[in-house]
Amino acid sequence: MNDFSFEHVLSEHYTVFDGLGGMHIEDLYQDREGFLWVATADGGVSRFDSVHFDRFGRKDGLPHRTVMAIAEDADGRLLFGTFGGGLAAYDGRGFEVYTTEHGLPSNEIVGLQEQPDGSVLVLTGAGVAWFADGRCIRRLTEVGGQPLGRVYDLADDAAGTTWLATWERGVISVDGRRMAMDEQAIRHPWKFAQTASGHLWIAFQSTTPETFVGRYDPHDEQFAFIPVDCEAPRGVRNGVRHVRTDAHDRLWLAYRGVLVHDGQTWQPFCVDRPEVDFSGMRLTYEDREGNVWLGLWGGGLIFCDPVSIRCYTEADGLPDREVCHLGEDAAGRVWIGTMGGMACMEAGQIHPLGADQPVSALLVDSAGQVWSGGETSEVYQWAGQVPQAIVVDAASPAEKITGLYEDEHGRIWVSTLEGRLGWIEAQCFTPLDERAGDECRALLQDQNGVFWIGFFGRVPALYWYEDGQFRPAVLAAAEAETIAYVHVLWEHEHALWIGTAQGLFVLDHSSGQVRHITADESELSANSVLALAADRQGHVWIGTSGGGVVRYDGESFQCIRLGPSALGNIVEAIVCDRTGQLWFGTRAGLVAYQPSATRPGLVIREVLAGRRLTMPEAVFCPEDVEEIRIRCQGISFRSGAQQMRYRHRLVGYGPAATWSAFSSAAEIAYRTLPVGDYRFEVQTMDRDGVQSAVVSLDLHILPDPQTKHRQILEKDLRASTPIVPSRSRAMEKVMQDVSQVVETDMTVLVLGETGTGKGVLAQTMHDMSHRHEQPFIQVNCGSIPANLIESELFGHEKGSFTGAGARQLGRFELAAGGTIFLDEIGNLPLELQGVLLHILEERTLTRVGGQRPVAVDVRVIAATNRDLKQAVAEGAFRKDLLYRLNGFTLELPPLRHRVEDIPALAEHFVARAAHALKRAIPTLDDAVVAALQAYAWPGNIRELEHVLERAVLLCKGDVVRVESLALLAEAGERPSAKRPIEAPPPTAAGDEKQQILDALQATNWRVSGVHGAAALLGMHPEKLRYRMQKY
CATH for 601-702? Predict the structure, then answer.
């Protein structure tokens, strides 16, 4: 593979199913902010930010759905040339239309060109016009006294002649000269492209089986037809539809696909998209990152990345595509160890070397000498293409060489699959007396002279060698004791880096501190670390098993996916050569990676502040808006949305005025901002660490004289129930929702963790409703045996089953006129869910063994701590029943989200327990209150009640002290002095996605651990990760 080839181009195909406005592409344009605009002949224009397509059509003010061309004027307005509707200018808010009434030669616009003076050339069906400042400043409709007709393109050659590509008159100059050519064979010029030498390339519609591209030399005024001599698919006689030249002076030609000419040869631009018919190729476009976009007539849009990732395989000279080891020698050659043998990359070419046996180890020593290991107890010293073999322990059976390392004395240490260790000195191998007994995978001597050995399949797997003994490494990290697989040892910046199957450990030599980096607690893409290296900026590159590569700049981790295949993202070797080129050895080939230097774009896509604002210039909202949510979008088509990182600050708002750390959070929320003026600032970073310009948005929080604190529900609750009034905003939202539904007969679904008071809330709603004088029946769907639950709920007739000696009314009939509370509804057997759905819809039931339906008048309140959407996905819960229950959803916050309520709740429970025990009511020590507020309360209010009941029982005097909280101490959950992180409450009941985002932001995007988002949400970390991927 050389620099002029496009093998293994990464690509992505977009159609109307992805949001694209139309399938017939006419033009492409990247604006100043980084958006890609797509003009279509059948669907208006679309704006793309790498994630979303925003479509613009007639309803938005576009005068015609056929858009032929796009440009940007000097004021930053986007201009769209339509075929029949004139010129439309878009300023971000709306369209302004210009037609023949404003001086255009025709409303049929076929092309737009930005001019050096800031004007825009408009190519129309009746000539050309120069457009600036909202008006036509010049027109050209005739040449030589004859109408120009439709003009597709205009170009100035190196001699100063201006040429027009016209449909009827061919290629003519503005002074009336015609470019001489055989017009019987080829007609209708479509497009010009100019080379650095001043030649003009001309695309024509072809009327012959052969296809040509025209080339005009202005120095000798000679024109020639250049045949396209590259093999192409079936004959499509539409000629060359589009030409352009790139920064390398290569010609890109849209012809039954894409061909590229470097002045000597033609090369196909290959994209592995078997579902696409490339005979409909319309044009190519290169954006600022160097990505190439292919616009198809009828086939949509294709994104291609030919620059950043280039993959070498057997077709390029590799003995085998599984590359396990890499190194660079003194001459700058890259040595490649594969499962099929050794190869060397020199001057862009791969040369296979030596035998075809797998390379199991590779080392380039301090002198630049290359060493490798094989599977037959031999170490090879390479001098040219013929290596010298050094036998390791000839008296023993052949063993695989698993590791090579040069120590401080210049000796080459060797390890084997069976645990043999020794060194090579003066071409002789000296074994250690003691065998390690297991596979030695990694060797390293650190800056202090300590010799480290990493094993594969042993617990612990990390040792050091001292005084002829293998000693287990003692690291200040509990997880280190369970390591069974050490893949790589590496020293960098006075620290030992240990790549294992359980993440990355970093041992600081000076402090002895160990940092454990995992996918659970950082942006590491996968826990199995196979390779480590540093680039010239000192950034650490981490090769993972299945997670591609990760770049770490000392602050944030950036994950880079090396293509669509799983094997291509298993990275077993990394080297940064002397030119700064990064090479990755993967199981799908050798990858050359070129980081981007282009700044990504960044826009504030949307703001939710009492209403939805799309790309606002500023935000004005009253003080009673509880939350302002800002959604940002970094634009880097090469990185993609998932690999972008963001940081932000709110200038003028206390601690939030400082920059946050970069994270993957693209949405930022601020709650109950005080009246005032603020400036929100955000910056994005692409996968290569390139940061965007700072984008800002002014926020103005205005005083609202009509703001009132809603206390109606709380007063009702005080009067009707013994529930302790809440002071938390989390519960205030629930109270507001209850007040809206309590007097109705709507079915209500109550969500919340175990112990949050779902049953109490259901009883309260019943007591406050017009049904309060009728029965309240509570059913725990998870506690009734499966064989009895149907008759328990719906009743049975006499003799309907063995033991049914008499008719029995079910819980629904017993609740007639009142309320039935179905707790743990998620545990209701699937076969009974249809019966419940029928009752909710028809208000009738049929008893077990019965024949006639029985009418029921009952209000249903259901509750669960399960994820019913997940249960639906798993087939354990009916989707139609979920929709029916979701008529009105209330979500009770866990106790850790309402810590301000804990003092009042504690006093209530203490008083009740003291009354039950017939004791004087003790007071609570301040330390007890602080401890209770610091505890995470996985069992919520129920756990708090039980803890305080026991505390009152154990209390020796008239004050409950911390020592009386015996249950916490026994459970190993003694509250710390540090207050736990509190996640903001969700903005709407049942809004699981928002609840997850709030929890992640509250925990600084830490997923697992005691203070992670999973614990905060009361779910397993793997379940949370599934939810994050789902949303």
Answer: 2.60.40.10
